[in-house]
Amino acid sequence: MRALESSAATVMEGPVLAARMAADGYLYLPGLLPPRVVADVQGGGRHRAGRGLAPSRRAAETYHGLKHHPALLGFFERMLGASVFPHPRVLMRNIFPAQPEYTTKAHQDYPNVQGTTEVYTAWIPLIDCPPERGGLQVARGSHRLGVLDFGIGNGAGGIENY
Q: Quick one: which of 20, 40, 76, 122 could link to 84 by a disulfide (CB 3.0–4.6 Å)?
């Protein structure tokens, strides 16, 4: 497996990001979101307990709030050169330890997201995901293949490409 190439050094350079996205089909931006924001999702929004929301509602609020974070929206706006609209659908993929048959298989996000193939996905790990633990893998350049055939899979998301 080839390591993902970081684009973090060019995160403020919209045209550079757009060119790299067009070439590779992904951008790896470690550190784009402040660690505290991700930690708040991990903790289920406990830091907002003073607002009087039930714990499950706080968790959902912090989770869904990720797509509206200024750092994430700003990145997309710089790359695309226009304002963006966060897709209403957010997918969480929970992975089961020591059960490889339920890991997320190779797939494209379009069949689950729908709408248009011009949607960008932000994969935000909520825990450390080193390669030996089975973190994200990207088929560089596969975005130029169009929507591929897929079938039902056991893993999170329920689909896998053939």
A: 76
DSSP state of 6: B
Give the separation between CA 17 and CA 23, rounded to whole angstroms.
10
Give the position of tokens 């067009």: 22
3-state secondary structure 40-103: HHHCCCHHHHHHCCCHHHHHHHHHHHHHHCHHHHHHHHHHHCCCCCCCCCCCCCCCCCCCHHHC
Does a structural domain hold residue 103? Answer: yes
Q: Count the alpha carbons within 13 Å of 27 in the hemisphere toward its beta carbon.
A: 26
Of 154 and 20, the one with more pLDDT:
20
Question: Is residue 87 assigned to a domain?
Answer: yes
Question: What does pTM read for this prediction?
Answer: 0.79
